[in-house]
Structures are given as C-alpha cells and as structure tokens.
C-alpha cells in the first residue's frame, strides 16, 4: 500500500467527527499499532476504529473536539509562544512515537490531517497502521511542512514576534537540518524572550533614600533612639523623683505589654499546634475507618461467595439424586453419528419446551422446541451457542461476528452457518486453519449441509451441532 493511493473522507454525526478511509483487505492492518494508539492517548495519534462495511474494511479516525491546523491558523494572528508550541508539539509527536513501537514514516504529514486543540494547543496526527511501502525522509517532510505553514498561514503579533519567523526560516535552510536539533532550537527560543533590564540611577537613589524614612516611622525604632538621648542630657542635680517614677512606670507598662504580646503569640502558636494535632488525629481515624470498612466488605464478599458455592453444590447433588441427566458434548461424541434417532414414545412424552441444567450452574432456562445450537464443553461447563439468525457468523472480530471466539487459531471471520428452507448449511469463509465436519475438512465458500449431532471444528475449537 502507498500513501498517495489513500483516499480520505470526512464523516460527521451529532456526537462524533471522523476521518474515514476504506481498505479492500483486513490483513494489511497492523493490529498491535492500533492497540498501542488507542491505549496510549499521549502517543499524539488520533484514535482508530475498524469496522466492516459491506465488502470493505472501514477505518475511522476520531477527530472529535479538534480542528485542522490549517483552519485554526487561517485569518488568525497568534503569539510567538503559540507558534513555538505548535511546531514543538508536532516534532515531539514524531520523535517520541518509537516509545510506542510506532513508525514516524506512517504519519500522514498534511496540513488538513494535522489536528489541534484550541484549549492547550496539543497536536494529533493521522497515523496509518497498515503495511506501507515508503522511503520517506521524515526530516525533509517536516521541514517542508513548516515552510508551507509559515509562508501560507502563520501571522504573528509584531510586539511578541522578535523576528521568530526569520530566525526559523534561517534554521530550516541548514543542510544538516534534523528534528532533534530543531526541537532544541524551539526550546531555546521559548526562553530567549526573557531579558534582565537595569533600573535607572535615579530610581536606585530614591529607593536608598526612602529606607531610613520607613525605619524612623516605626514606633519600636523611635524608643530605641530616644532613650540614649534622654540619659545623656539629664544631669544628676536636675533629677525629679516624680518624673523618674512616671518614666519607670511607663517602662514597666511597656515591658508588661510586650510580655502580654509575647504570651498571646505563644498561646496562639500552641492553639495552632493543638489544632493541627486534632486534625491529624481525625484524618488518621478516618483512614482507619475506611480500612476497617474495606476489610468488612471483603469478609462479606467471601461469605457471599461461600454461600453461593454451597448452594451450587447442594443443587447439583439434588439433581443427581433425582436422577436427572444432563446432556453433554462428550455423550454426543461417544454416539459418533450424524443424526439422532428418537422413538415415537419419547417424542410424545417430551413437552414443547424443556429445562436445561448446566454442570456448573444452578440457573435454568427454557428453550423453544426445534432450536439449533452449537455445544462445547469448557472448564466443566456445557456452553450452548444458539443460532438465532438465518446468517450466523463465527469469528474473533467484535461487531462483525455473531459468536466471538477467544481462540487465536480461529480466523477473524472464520465460518458462517446459514439457514435455508428449514435446513442448516455450513460455509468456510476462506479461513487459514480450515473448518471440519465429522473430521473431514470442507472446501471454502461452498454450502455444506449439517445435521443434528454433527461434530464441527473451527480450527482446533470443537463443537457439536444440535437441533432440539
């Protein structure tokens, strides 16, 4: 497959926006790449859905909530930081895709298929998880894309531009251009706009002169300055007793007020510490309560499981004692016949509906008469797959097969059971490991009539076909 042969369409519905392409063969899809993209939102690729559409494979890319970068930039003036972020996010997506076992050459580098989020400027690219034939140089492709983006769409504010467009174009002309070096250039350009501006001398002098004014206005500094001046000017002969007493009283009152303030501060700190301790204790108690509740819940679940198992065992014993027989696949294999003969008396005695009890379940279900189904035995349980459609498909693809098998040997669309004129036919859908009826492999794309009691194998998964 070649990138140039790929045709894309836009498909919108009330809740989703998709980009759609069609394939002729599902085998060209690389499954693990699809799983990597869908399970890792940080891979930078749009999520992928694979569906069957008539005779083609429909590949859908989820672009909900995003717009093409071409439409986002058209007629818009952006800042320098936005421009750098967009280019860097595209480069990071291409450089880090190998962390998710993806190939950077499989990204579709087109301005109409590169999507951006208006919230955080995150970028998502369209990835082709197919078996591609390409010798593309991603460095050259990315450089050409950035040039086209700058020349045709980008318009940056003059106040914040700082010649970023000219510098970027100059870097793109380098002969040794590569993604890693360009990413480093963008990161350095992000910080290059931060400059240190020296303040004028007049502002510095004003700040220095304002410092002593602020200190003198503080009451504590006034007391410190005035006290030594009073002691130097007063002579011993001029000392007044009443004045000394009043000064002593004032100093004592100041000391007491300071002590009260210190005590209030210490008491406030103690209260905060006590509050923190109480809060921590409450949090610890809540955590312990949650753990106890979790343990009780686990005990309740264990008890409930034990009760269910006990009831299950009791029901099985009760059924065995009553002498009811459970029809199993092993019984039909031992019969080794393509149909089951039934006596007229048995037919007359059987009602139109009957009760089926599996080996590992106490639940019962009523089935209509003459119902076709496949039976297999897994882990002691009889599994019955009811054929409720005229065209019943067996395979591993969810949404395309009516019965989905967990056996990797079974094909994605392995076989089909078709009902025509009250008869059932089996068709092998060109599976790799084949389909067998009573030990014989059937040809692909041919109708093969199956009867009650036939043993059918899809690859190595064995089933018994029955009509009751």
Structure, explained:
This protein is α+β, with helices and mostly antiparallel strands. It has 3 domains: about 5-190, Transferase(Phosphotransferase), domain 1; about 240-325; about 330-465, Tumour Suppressor Smad4. The protein is built from 12 helices and 21 strands. The protein has helices at about 30-40, 70-75, 80-95, 140-150, 160, 165-170, 180-190, 200-215, 220-235, 240-320, 330-335, 345-350; strands at about 10, 15-25, 50-55, 55-60, 65-70, 105-110, 115, 125, 355, 365, 370-380, 380-385, 390-395, 405, 415-420, 425-430, 435, 440, 450, 455-460, 460-465. The strands form 5 sheets. A 6-stranded antiparallel sheet has the order 12-11-21-20-17-18, covered by helices on one side. The chain has a 5-stranded mixed sheet with strand order 14-13-15-16-19, with no helix packed on it. It has a 4-stranded antiparallel sheet with strand order 1-2-4-3. Helix 3 (about 80-95) packs antiparallel against helix 7 (about 180-190). The longest helix has about 80 residues, at about 240-320. It is flat, with a radius of gyration of 41 Å. The two termini are about 50 Å apart. InterPro entries: Cell_Proc_Reg/RNA_Proc, DUF6382, FHA_dom, SMAD_FHA_dom_sf. Keywords: Membrane, Transmembrane, Transmembrane helix.
User: What class do helices, strands and sheet pairing give?
Assistant: alpha+beta
Let me know the number of strands. Answer: 21
* Strand percentage: 15-25%
How does the major sheet shape up? 6 strands, antiparallel
pLDDT averaged residue by residue? 78
- Share in helix: 40-55%
Number of domains as seen in the coordinates:
3
The outline comes out as flat
- The CATH topology of the largest domain is given as Transferase(Phosphotransferase), domain 1
Distance between the termini: 49 Å
Extract low-pLDDT stretches: 194-251, 324-330, 335-368
The name of the CATH superfamily of the largest domain reads: Transferase(Phosphotransferase) domain 1
- Radius of gyration equals 41 Å
Transmembrane segments: 274-296, 302-321
Domain FHA: 392-442
InterPro entries: Cell_Proc_Reg/RNA_Proc (IPR050923), DUF6382 (IPR045962), FHA_dom (IPR000253), SMAD_FHA_dom_sf (IPR008984)
Keywords: Membrane, Transmembrane, Transmembrane helix
